[in-house]
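User: Hello! I'm new to structural biology and keep hearing that structure can be predicted from sequence alone. Could you demonstrate with DUF2007 domain-containing protein? Please show me the input and the output so I can see what each looks like.

Assistant: Of course. The first part below is the input, the amino acid sequence of DUF2007 domain-containing protein. The second part is the output, the predicted structure written as tokens.
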Amino acid sequence: MMTSVLSREDRVIRIDPREADDLIALLRLVGIPCGNPAAGSQPGEVCIPLPDTAGEAELKRAEAIVLEFNRMRATRAIHHAQEN
């Protein structure tokens, strides 16, 4: 699985399509507006758009959510590997 990345320049989050809905739910839960996922430029990725109106505070919160989301996925993968 790919690591989720927030591009401030493009105002999109690049993520594995299988995990986009979970990240969108987290973002919306903490009040970060985002659009529906669209096909990314790379195979196996989708882009979650952030609005042009998102301010610095919202971008920082989105970055923090993406960072924690990646950590959670890595931890889950480690535990899953240990169980098998």
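User: So the tokens describe the shape?

Assistant: Right, they're a compact way of writing down the 3D structure. Reading them back into a model, for example: The longest helix spans residues 56-83.
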